[in-house]
Design a protein that fits this description.
Elements lengths: L8 E6 L21 H11 L4 E5 L14 E3 L6 H12 L4 E6 L7 H10 L6 E5 L5 E8 L3 H10 L5 H6 L3 E5 L12 H14 L4
Parallel strand pairs: 1-2, 1-4, 2-3, 5-7
Antiparallel strand pairs: 4-6, 5-6
């Protein structure tokens, strides 16, 4: 559970991407019987967080987004970095656990472990990939991340991973690397569906 002595922590599902490689909105894909944006939002709620979905203005009434608490993008055409900055601007006193909407294997355990490891003295707490790089789309961004990310934006750096690689963060290893596997292409979507289907078959 969130530590009350830390800045308040909220959840954020990043759903404002263009999904060009997938060819359809990744937020609306259903891996668990519902749009993935809804499933990810529910996972954040299960982890004990008040949660929002990040969206473009044209997604406000889209499938999955409608009816959920929303933070419209204020930094347009900057990808995930724009969604993270929009949330940090929306609640300047708060931190956000930001997750991408294309992580079909993400579970509440992975989120709870990240929350338990949180270090608010850093600008972010993030899982590390097997190669040792921070995973920016399953990470906690502290209020102090806002001016730092703005600084990177001013330098033309719009990649949140590059920003984290060049910042004072806490990186932690995941005990479930599959939870951080993202899906960007139609063939990956089909493969993920098959993996999830097999995992749900009683043994």
């Amino acid at each position: 559970m969130p530590n009350p002595s830390f800045p308040p922590l909220f959840g954020l599902v990043l759903g404002g991407g263009q999904s060009r490689r997938m060819g359809r909105d990744k937020a609306s894909l259903a891996y668990h019987g519902k749009p993935q944006i809804v499933h990810a939002w529910e996972l954040l709620r299960e982890a004990g967080l008040q949660a929002y979905v990040s969206c473009r203005s044209d997604q406000v009434e889209a499938e999955g987004f409608r009816g959920l608490p929303q933070i419209p993008d204020r930094f347009l055409d900057f990808g995930p970095m724009g969604g993270i900055l929009s949330a940090l601007l929306f609640r300047r006193e708060a931190a956000f656990l930001a997750v991408a909407c294309d992580l079909p294997f993400l579970d509440a355990g992975a989120l709870s472990d990240l929350i338990a490891a949180r270090d608010p003295s850093k600008i972010a707490t993030a899982y590390l990939s097997p190669g040792g790089l921070p995973e920016p789309l399953c990470a906690i961004y502290e209020p102090t991340a806002y001016p730092k990310l703005l600084e990177f934006m001013g330098q033309g750096i719009h990649c949140p991973r590059k920003a984290l690689c060049n910042s004072d963060i806490l990186g932690i290893n995941s005990t479930n690397t599959e939870a951080l596997a993202n899906v960007n292409h139609p063939e990956e979507y089909e493969a993920a569906q098959e993996t999830l289907r097999k995992s749900s078959i009683p043994r």
